[in-house]
Amino acid sequence: MTNLPCPDAVLTVSVVSHGDDVGMLPRTLESLARAAEFSGPVRQGMRLVLVDNGPEDAARSAALAAVVRRWQGAVAVISGQGNVGYGRGHNLAIQRGDSTYHLVLNPDVEIAPNALAEAVAFLEEHPACGLLAPAVRDGHGELQYLCKRRPTVLDLLLRGFAPGRVRERFRARLDRYEMRDLINDRDIVWDPPIVSGCFMLFRAEVLKALGGFDARYFLYFEDFDLSLRTARVARVAYVPAVRIVHHGGGAARKGFAHVRMFVASAAKFFGRHGWRWA
User: Fold this and answer.
1) Radius of gyration (Cα) for the chain, nearest Å?
2) Burial class (CB in 10 A: 0-12, 13-18, 19+), 232
3) 9-273 domain in CATH 3.90.550.10?
4) pTM of the predicted protein model
5) β-strand partners of 13
6) Is the separation of the CB atoms in 15 and 48 below 8 Å?
7) What is the pLDDT of residues 15-39, one digit of tens each?
């Protein structure tokens, strides 16, 4: 593990990499670099922390080495811990970072050039905001509804696993869960209950006070849990002027192992925050 550089950074960005996502990682980090160049406050004060949860192989090692060369002194690599999970991986960076803001970022996200400038400006203008969520589009340009109201078990089953014809019967219910009545690409929405872990920009003091992610979630629902805990101590804002593209996919499309992790994490989430069935 390399030491984290620059204790006076404006923004620390943590990215957890595992498995095949290293192929998308250069695009993610190139967009991050462009966004930093666009933002005056961030330009000289951003530090990247790359947490390598992946297996050791020649291709991954070469790809990560290229990242380190590209970022020179502005990157730290945390490795050797094995696959400790998404939340615990980010916590390794959160615990060691020292900056004004901390961005939790997926390795399959591309950031608009003005996204960091817009985000930092918003947080500086609204000191009560502890967590900012962006407008998210998929690779086809379609707006994604990743802010959520608190789910029930039925909502998760319908959205994640029901066939299309069944989902259509419950369309009004699912639209409400996905906050489609409020989320658009124009209006700021204050206090969405849950925001996506693919891009979570925190006021660092809030994130550290919360202790980062709950390490009991290996994958899935760690962002649900952290969103609800953040809302107890600070305000959350959806800010559509901050734009990203997310190339991710749902658990049901990733095979049985991901379905099993999804179910296990859902049980932990409802066990902590209360079971809501229908």
Assistant:
1) 18
2) exposed
3) yes
4) 0.93
5) 48, 103
6) yes
7) 998 876 777 888 999 999 999 998 8
